[in-house]
Amino acid sequence: MKEVAQKYNVDYDDLLKVCHQANVPIPSAQYRIALNNKEDTTKLKIDLPASENKYLIVKTKKFSSKSLTDKETLDKEFLEQQFNFLHDSIKAQKIAEVLIKASHKNTWRATPEIKAYKESVKKWKEENHSRPRYNNYYYDEKKPPMFIDTLSPKGMKRAYRLLNEIITIFKQIGEQVNDDLTIMIGKDQVEYEIKEDQNKVPHELTAHERKALANYEKEKEKYDFVSRPQIRKYDHPYNGHLRIRFIVCGSHKRYIKDSKQGTLEEQLPAILVAFYKTYLETKQKREEREAWERERKGRTRKTASAKN
């Protein structure tokens, strides 16, 4: 089991747990010794249990789109199985084909959508939209580009590259991507956001703040009404770690982030799974709203008819 876990880059305990849950028999020490000695193992073998699934899914330590080139660990059927929740075998097949094709790409040409988004960010910064906001709305009527308030300049450059890959994949699958980077699957817009994590560190006084404090110490000796300068205790610098959060009707449902197991760029299959799961939940909410609206209109018509 340990050799298998190492070979397929998965956690040993996770692999053991999945096998037990699926009633997969674990080879005994006696069987392994006989196998290594090239002895007859017929009586030591145990049949696998009946199952509809060809694979057992165990999360890899580093689930990377690049690892798709390793045919021992991932193949087309394996990827298709991860999109079984769509209940659309043709769609799952298409997604798997596009992901495998993407895994062999070394360079990615910038899409028109990314070019348009970059231009909107550049224009927004040139216009200097620095006026205060209240209730998350700018005084400006123009809506700011997505992610402009949640990424550092360095994080934004990395987000460009990541989104360019995601957008290219979605377009090859056949989904619609708009210039503002919103993604439409079927009739529904999948809400998501990219954020860069921030550290909490003690605030280092600036020259201006040190001067203000010095003046305060002098003034308070003369006057009782002098107020101490308001200086924050902590700074929250961006740390370069990105995460994608997926949203359904204003609520955060799931997220994928950089981790020791892999960066976002190395988790493209998992990101697509999250997009499509979010789409299905968004679709369900929309259909529920539409059903409620039809019922409401039906009751209104009945009431109007009764009055007439």
- Quantity of strands, as a count: 9
Q: How would you classify the quaternary structure? A: single chain
Count every helix, treating DSSP H or I runs of 4 or more residues as helices: 9
**Low-confidence segments, ≥5 residues, pLDDT <50?**
63-73
- Order of strands across the biggest sheet? 3-4-5-8-9
Mean of residue pLDDT values: 85
Secondary-structure content class: alpha+beta
Estimate the global geometry from the Cα principal axes: extended
How would a crystallographer describe the biggest sheet? 5 strands, antiparallel
Distance between the first and last residues' Cα: 77 Å
Determine Rg (CA atoms, Å).
28 Å
Helix content: 40-55%
Strand content: 5-15%
Q: Give the ordered list of helices and strands.
A: HHHHHHEEHEEEEHEEEH
Structural features, described:
- The structure is a single chain.
- By secondary structure, this protein is α+β, with helices and mostly antiparallel strands.
- Helices cover 45% and strands 14% of the residues.
- The strands form three sheets. It has a five-stranded antiparallel sheet with strand order 3-4-5-8-9. A two-stranded antiparallel ribbon has the order 1-2. It has a two-stranded antiparallel sheet with strand order 6-7.
- Strand 4 and strand 5 form a beta hairpin.
